[in-house]
Amino acid sequence: MWKLTEYKSTDAKKETKVKLLVKEMAANTFASYAEQFADAFKIRLAEIPRQNNFSADLLYKCTQRNMYSVEIWKLDVAGEFKYRMFTLDYQKENK
Questions:
Q1: Could you give the CA distance from residue 30 to residue 25 in angstroms, rounded to a whole number?
Q2: Which tens digits make up the pLDDT trace of 3-30?
Q3: What is the strand order of the sheet 60-66 is part of?
Q4: What is the DSSP letter of 68?
Q5: Confidence (pLDDT) at 68
Q6: CA 41 from chain center: how many Å?
Q7: Nearest CA to 62 among 30, 92, 33?
Q8: How far apart are CA 53 and CA 83, in angstroms?
Q9: Residue 77 to residue 95: CA distance in whole angstroms
Q10: What residue spans of the chain are helical by DSSP H?
Q11: Which residues of 35-44 are buried (b: 16+ CB within 10 A; e: fewer)?
């Protein structure tokens, strides 16, 4: 299970879809390593329909902080980091 920390976001339609995707993946993903989560995020992000001139996979990026932690970033049109939206940390489930 991934612990989700939300930082900044807007109410734009595309950003709302990305927020829902991240929250769903945090709760229901098979990934237990940051690289697996980042790869799955990239694939799922490409499935969001293109609007205007930009698609979601060009405006959002998942970066690894370490083996068990990722950050989701909003990018500007030049591909530079604009602001951090989420941090996700993998929490091992106690049985």
A1: 9
A2: 999 998 888 888 888 999 999 999 887 8
A3: 2-6, 81-90, 69-75, 60-66
A4: T
A5: 93
A6: 6
A7: 33
A8: 21
A9: 45
A10: 13-28, 34-46, 56-59
A11: eebbeebeeb
